[in-house]
Amino acid sequence: MNVSLILIVVMAVLFACGVYAMLERSLTRVLIGFLLLGNAANLLLLVVMGRPGVAPFYGAGEAASDPLPQALTLTAIVITFAVSAFLLALIYRSWQLGQADTVTDDEADIAVRERSLAAEETMDDEAELMGDDATTDFVGVDTAPITVLGSRDVPGIVDDAPADRPLRGPRDRGDDS
C-alpha cells in the first residue's frame, strides 16, 4: 500500500469514529469525537499537501513544498485546542451542577418535540393558502425602512454655491454661524 492511501484510510476511520462519538449524549464522548475530527482534519491537510519538498525559500530549481497546508494545519491545531478547552470547561460545569455529563431532555424539549409535528402541518396549510404571490411589508415609499434624502430635504443646506467650487463649511452653505 502507498503511504498516502494508508493516511486516507486512517483519516476516514478517524472521521467516522469522530462523527459517531459526537452523536452521543455524553459530553465526554462529544469531546473525544471532536478531538478525533480535529486529528482527521489535520491528516486531511497532510494528505492534501502532496509530496514533501524543500523549503520554499531554499532553492528555486528544486520542487518546493506548499506552505499553505502547513499554516492551515497549525491553525487547525490551535482551533482544536481552544474548542477542546471550552468543552472541558463545559463538561466540568455540567458535572458540578448535575453530577453527570449527559445531556437530558427537559420539559421544554419534550413540549417542542410534541408541538413540532402539529406546527409543521399548520405551516404547510398556511403556505398552501398564501400561494406564490406573497406580499412584503416594504412596498411603498411610506413604509420603506430607509429614506434617501437629497440636499434640498435637509434644512440649513443651500445649493447656491458655484458648480466649480465645492461646499467647504457653514459659510458656503449659507449659515451665519
UniProtKB/TrEMBL annotation:
Region (Disordered): 152-177
Annotated transmembrane regions: 6-23, 30-50, 70-92
Keyword line: Cell membrane, Membrane, Transmembrane, Transmembrane helix
InterPro entries per record: CPA3_antiporter_subunitC (IPR050601), NUOK/Mnh_C1-like (IPR039428)
Source domain of life: Bacteria
Bilayer disposition of the protein: Multi-pass membrane protein
Entry keyword Protein transport: no
Keyword Endoplasmic reticulum found: no
Subcellular location: Cell membrane
Family membership noted in the UniProt record: Belongs to the CPA3 antiporters (TC 2.A.63) subunit C family.
Record-linked PANTHER family: ANTIPORTER SUBUNIT MNHC2-RELATED
Protein name: Na(+)/H(+) antiporter subunit C
UniProt lineage: Bacteria, Bacillati, Actinomycetota, Actinomycetes, Micrococcales
